[in-house]
Design brief:
Shape: globular
CATH topology: Spore Coat Polysaccharide Biosynthesis Protein SpsA, Chain A
CATH architecture: Alpha-Beta Complex
Order of helices and strands: HEHEHEH
Structural class: alpha/beta
Radius of gyration: 13 Å
Amino acid sequence: MSIKEQQHPKISVVIPCYNYGEFLPEAIDSVFAQTFQDFEVIIVDDGSTDSLTQEVLSQIDHPKIRVIRQEHQGAPVARNRAIQ
């Protein structure tokens, strides 16, 4: 396997999140429960203001998960940001 293949997973799972931190653990667990494991998870915090979401996001520490934070701009912008 080349270095390029090792650095870029075949699948990117994009999760836009705005004040729905209570559902993030279940969404993440669902991704990790799949048999296909060549993936990354990109969570875009779309300017969440509730403390639970902030707490859940701050506790995420996994090499396959990346959290991107941005001001609230809506789910389509959050998805596009993750794709970039």
